[in-house]
Amino acid sequence: MGVLSGRFKEVLMLLFIVFVHEMGHVWMARRFHWDVIKIELLPFGGAAVLEPKGIRPAREEAWIVCWGPFQHSWMIGLSYILLHTTDVWMIQDHQLFISHNIAILLFNFIPIHPLDGGRLVHLLYSAFLPYKQAMKATWLTSLILLTLGFFVVLVLMLKLNLMMIFSFLLLTLILDYRQRNYRFIRFLMAKINDQTSTKQSALYVERETTLKVVSERIRKNHLHTIVVENNARYTYSLEAVLDAYFQKGSHVKIDELDKR
Questions:
Q1: Which GO BP annotation is one of this protein's (predicted)?
Q2: Which residue among the candidates 10, 22, 229, 256 is catalytic per the annotation?
């Protein structure tokens, strides 16, 4: 009976830690007026599904991502206070609570999508690469690290719980890959009415360049002007190019649009 009650207490601890972690993401998301779609809780982790309402500054997403792991600092501090000020919180409870906090914190910082570390890696790639390339680089990085993790678990550790977690992450990664085109189209649609990007940059293209190629060079937090290099240079706004992309098709050449 004592073993069962101990396991029950441990599960409650894990669920509490995961819940507080995810609510950290939710609180910061609400502060930036993002929509919260749902929160999923599992004994080995959780997920807050958030909707940014269009293109938002990278710093907002960085704050939201980091605010979940930040919650572990005050939870660990609270455990030390309870240990030294009450008779209810025993040393065994404290040690177990601290170990679970550290384990979940470190696990979430693994740079594998959709963990917090993977989301930070995506933000880093997005700072230097076009959005579609950043998605691909994030996915490849996650796949490589996940493969290495599987190898370590199978060969060196052989722990069933870790194999289940890595299997779940692999399934999530596969589903994310299958939805990559949908995510990219949503990004392009959001860029049409981008009100938050402030960094001005030009995309230089040849007159024979298709809108598909132009779209794949768009960066997340940039306000692009499309410059066509011909005998005489002419420009298009990103909004005009994306309108043509959705109305006429991605196969249309940039030279076929009405010149400005």
A1: proteolysis
A2: 22
